[in-house]
Amino acid sequence: MPYQPLPIHQSDVRYVHGPDSAAQPGVPSGETIEFDWNGSAIYPGTSRKFWVHVPAGYNPAEPASLMVFQDGWWYLDPAGEVRGPIVLDNLMHRGDIPVTIGVFVDPGVFPDAEDPKNRNTEYDAFDDRYVSFLLNGIIPEVSKHYLLAEDPDQWGICGGRSGGNCAFTAAWLRPDKFRRVTAFLSSFTQMPGGNPYPELVPRVPRKPLGIFLQAGHRDLRWNEPEGNWIANNLRVVAALAEAGYDFRLVLGDGGPCSPMPSAGCGDPTRAERRQALINNPECQSGQLECSMAK
Asked: What is the enclosing helix (H) or strand (E) of 66?
């Protein structure tokens, strides 16, 4: 096949939603409950919302799998790109994934502050503050209302841009809790102190993680030597390969604000996904994060 060069600009690349992104006849809808969260000891002064999506098939006597989404509303919005609860409902109804409770967590804000956003502080840091915030705050609150599985192989964490490296860091530091990682168009390059993973991953004993990564050919600074989003994602992938991890990388077209394709996620068999993730709504919907802040 003749070589076809990619256009320099791909801002007009769009992808069609897959059928699992729409409510299907005969598929019962789960219930989504909104929570307010204030007074964090780890991020004092912040306020945020989070949502819990409880599938129609949830049985209070049987522990459910868990999937935590960063930038919660963006993944939750039924009129948005991802439509996470709709996809989860469709997959569970067909039996493609186990009964899974989705927890959609917004980043913290400082109410009335001139610069209210705390997103990059929470998501880009290479430390255990954010995963501790989840494990000691948000998830125990969810557990007061719903029975969650204790098996870390049934816990997944997902995010994009800074939320992607946040998800990766959470599982990296606490593989005893999260072992399924899904990270899209991750902002490894803007982690304070630099991206630690290309050197770190091959140097330490392999962790029991299954990792799904997606990157875009025309992400930010794609052809520059510094601060290159795709290059940093590929360096992380190379480190995972050298260390023998169970991972999958999908490359898509489009710039930093173009949703990646369902064709990029492919239509992999459920067996192929067994270790890589608790099935992720974005792959099924054919949509990835694009427009959140870096």
From this structure: strand 65-70
Gyration radius (Cα) of the chain, Å: 18
Buried b (16+ CB within 10 A) or exposed e, 220-249: bebeeeeebbbbbbbbbbebbeebebebbb
3-state secondary structure 148-216: ECCCHHHEEEEEECHHHHHHHHHHHHCCCCCCEEEEECCCHHHCCCCCCHHHHHHHCCCCCCEEEEEEE
Give the pTM: 0.87
Q: What are the pLDDT digits (tens) for 26-44?
A: 999 999 999 999 989 999 9
Share of residues in the chain with pLDDT > 90 (%): 63
State the Cα torsion 60-88-294-110 to the nearest 10°. -30
The phi and psi torsions of 87 (rounded to 5 degrees) equal -65, -45
Please classify residue 271 by burial: count the beta carbons closer than 10 Å to its beta carbon, then call 0-12 exposed, 13-18 middle and 19+ buried.
Answer: exposed
